[in-house]
Amino acid sequence: MCGIVGYIGPKAAQNILLEGLRKLEYRGYDSAGLAVHNGEKLDVEKKEGPLASLEEALGSHPLPGQLGIGHTRWATHGKPSDENSHPHVDAKQQFAVVHNGIIENYLELKEELAAKGYTFSSETDTEVIAHLLADLYDGDLVSTVRNAVKRMEGAYALGVIHVQEPDKMVAVRLASPLIVGVGEGENFIASDIPAILDHTRNVYVLEDGEMAVITRDGVELFTTDGEPVQREMLHVKWDAVTAEKGGYEHFMLKEIHEQPKAIRDTLAGRIKEGIVDLSQEISLTAEELNGIDRIHFVACGTAYHAGLIGKAVVERLARIPVEVDVASEYRYRNPIITPSTLVVVVSQSGETADTLAALREAQKAGAKVLGITNVVGSSVAREADEVLMTWAGPEIAVASTKAYTSQLIAIYLFGLYLARIRGTRSEAQLKEATEELLRLPEKVDNALSDADTIKQFAEQIKNHDNLFFIGRGLDHAVVMEGSLKLKEISYIHSEAYAAGELKHGTLALIEEGIPVIALATQQDIFDKMVSNIIEVKARGAHVLGLAQDGDTELTKSVDEVFTIPQTLPLFTPVVAVIPLQLLAYYTSVARGLNVDKPRNLAKSVTVE
Amino acid sequence: MCGIVGYIGPKAAQNILLEGLRKLEYRGYDSAGLAVHNGEKLDVEKKEGPLASLEEALGSHPLPGQLGIGHTRWATHGKPSDENSHPHVDAKQQFAVVHNGIIENYLELKEELAAKGYTFSSETDTEVIAHLLADLYDGDLVSTVRNAVKRMEGAYALGVIHVQEPDKMVAVRLASPLIVGVGEGENFIASDIPAILDHTRNVYVLEDGEMAVITRDGVELFTTDGEPVQREMLHVKWDAVTAEKGGYEHFMLKEIHEQPKAIRDTLAGRIKEGIVDLSQEISLTAEELNGIDRIHFVACGTAYHAGLIGKAVVERLARIPVEVDVASEYRYRNPIITPSTLVVVVSQSGETADTLAALREAQKAGAKVLGITNVVGSSVAREADEVLMTWAGPEIAVASTKAYTSQLIAIYLFGLYLARIRGTRSEAQLKEATEELLRLPEKVDNALSDADTIKQFAEQIKNHDNLFFIGRGLDHAVVMEGSLKLKEISYIHSEAYAAGELKHGTLALIEEGIPVIALATQQDIFDKMVSNIIEVKARGAHVLGLAQDGDTELTKSVDEVFTIPQTLPLFTPVVAVIPLQLLAYYTSVARGLNVDKPRNLAKSVTVE
Q1: Domain range holding B107?
Q2: Active site located where (chains A, B) (predicted)?
């Protein structure tokens, strides 16, 4: 995720672009940059760090001009640095490009261009676009972009300007958001509506495979094949704050709904011929991967809960024994680590202090560390021996949602890759699992569709100060995450239990009317789970059940039921966590609390 | 633990003995028996099973006579069976003996007697006493008993009668309780006061190394060396219900106070020349013990918390990687088990359904199973490949206390034994640790001595519905147990957290005035723990701290502090759990709840 803006009109572009970027900082904030056409040439300024660093640099050297594009970055290819910042330009600085998304075939294109003598000054996929445009340049910006796009695979939104066409800006969208703001004698492009709301409320929302050619006085829409497109203009009624949240009331709800995309992005480029292939990212050889005899997952909070799923995934798929540790405990307990131990640390921000300390401790003890993180260039990404990125984009709400599901996807990819290399699963099994992985975004979408039932669940629990979640096996790990979500933002003291363990003490707390949220997606232990539900029902609990579509059994034993799409048992957590995230969200709203910034908590815990 | 009674007087002995045994059933209930002098010979009836089985047997064949002894058994040496039941007799049925305790040198005595031609019909240590008495018989019951006692090592209370002396009963006490009830023309012996309260309130309490010679009309007390003893008579004012609880208001409090003895009994006979030696009990060879490459602890509830300590003990002392699982999860998660995996199951009752199922699952997968249990002859004791008994005696209160500390002791013994065999600790280190183990009963006694401070803590939490426990490392495992105790009997929703993990979400629940109970006994992480305490203090928590004697630091950061005796870091759980058990107890009492039988719970969970 990144934010892009563009301006063409009678005013000074620089400040309009900077204001726009400020509204898009939630989309990324590790570096920012501008390219402005000064009438003769393209001036570029770009800086690592928050937008303030760019503003400071521009303070002494402003970029004059009335046409320009800007970018705020969330690193994907290449760490945060001045060089990797956008806009990117070709060698002669004829083209300037801002880009949001991923060019999946950029390595191939890069090799091709390098062979022709192009040199690259950054590690990004975006720079490849600038050189590709230069290579294909036919004297016309629009047709050149159209031809370049034909060569590009992936997901992207682009803004492009050319030194020879000071009255024109071209924008393209494929699977990354892009809008065109239509003003009076001035026009705009942006990743999102808030960036242009100060100037106009008239907007065209581009669709996939569409392209806009924008001048001061006009906007024309085409398909990337050149067919004209008619589009109704949207008149935005949102206020600026709502707009920043993409129309959602809170960042958390927005991020919950971004999960299908986050999952797609995290899967992208990692499946070849129907099978998971991480050989481009993980440098451990087959011999080294075969030599691993123990794996430790180490993480905190929500990422720890992803690690619990990791244990099941790796043990079932690759039959390597796994331990899962809370990072603050791991580093002080003198864990048994050998050179054949792989330590997997999981951290959205890549800066979690306890997790980082554990990573260093593990390396000191001689283990290789695989980092799973959402932030390119973060400490975890830099210090881990191997890195598997999640591509969830920036997460603003303190309560993590899309980072968690993306971590699960990274873990599935890793588990399937290990199973492939170690030969613990047949090719047919791997293909079947991989196919199902690719169906998850749609299933998550489906699970998101029945918010009304969950709102009603929220009404039923909102006045309780205590409640319990129960589940068995993978469902237990999922309800631990569901319970943490609820605690974080509703301040209800909820606790998650392995359903079979409740009777060994905590059942004493089950009294008339106490809500129990019971997850029952695992068919092999379904009957046992129903028995545990009957135990709490017998003590008067009000049971809200979550089952798979088609359930006829659980429905008989619980007070209310919500169903989610069926998938492979190992993948159910990705789908099952959705209603639990929504439940936490709607309960927090119903209790009138600050959903995105709960009391006492910080997004990234950089202290021990 | 077992219960013994004896009667001499004008009435029929049988019913008086049976009534007495009924009052002592809390001391054991796996079998019972009587020996009554019918004027000519000693009649014996004994039956496996509860007292009702004996009563049924006697219903058709009553034992006439006015002198007799009786016993209700809690198996130690030898499984519950008719043969192993007491009373035991010699080959000619001249002597009948009931015994509570352990004869530590019984194997040696047995060999000696076997060499002389004595044959044994049971597996017990007690039968050895009967044959020893026969072997030493000099025509006088009293001097024969005196001479026999000189040969016996261990802890015991005995009641003995002889066919040639129909007017006399002899009782001896060494470290197991025994009282003499003094009536009008009739006298009694018993393990505990409730057994005789229907007949008299006048009692002599025997002390260690004392012997009573009892006739219808008189009681004479001597040392076992034959010196006369003067003892003041005790006039019991307790009612029968209080008496059954040894003067404590509840079984739980009684059992909490029995922990020094339970620890001593569990250590007894397992330390040779200052070092732990389990070779008599564990049949795994040094080669087999050296071949173990992974250990799984599997248990439920409180025993699971003992398993968490087990992980630290085994990993630190013997450097074998350990996983700890809740039994209801373990059996269904397809754990990775190889022939070099040792599975350790922990269950007080030895009948916990989930634990038993896990044991069978592990054996099916090819692992050896070590059972740690408190009940000889239980399913775990019978089915496990290796058994390490805890000697806590019967636990009546649903909330487990002395079983837990005894399980910890068994685990320490096992860890030290492994470290010895595998050479991961020097002899000096093993000796130092073993010496410290032997000091634990006294330290637990010390921790029990300041109940007033804990009562005051209980007053401070009793009106809260939610609270948290925090700790790091071993302290985390201990607060999990402390929290479970509180939940079970006070119905307060308490939750235990690894102190460093709280900030990753649950800190949102910390608000003004909420109690947080913080355990800080581990010196290497003490400063980190203080930081976590300051985090919750800053959010308004009311912090009750538990530190080690001599603490000057924690005191500054918390609202109240309770200190416990210092010991080795690995052993602190045994001492640190004491105030937490007392806190749960006094809070339950302050809330007016049923301490010994909390709602919804059963003592031994024999369903899944």
Answers
A1: 3-244
A2: 2 (nucleophile), 603 (for fru-6p isomerization activity)
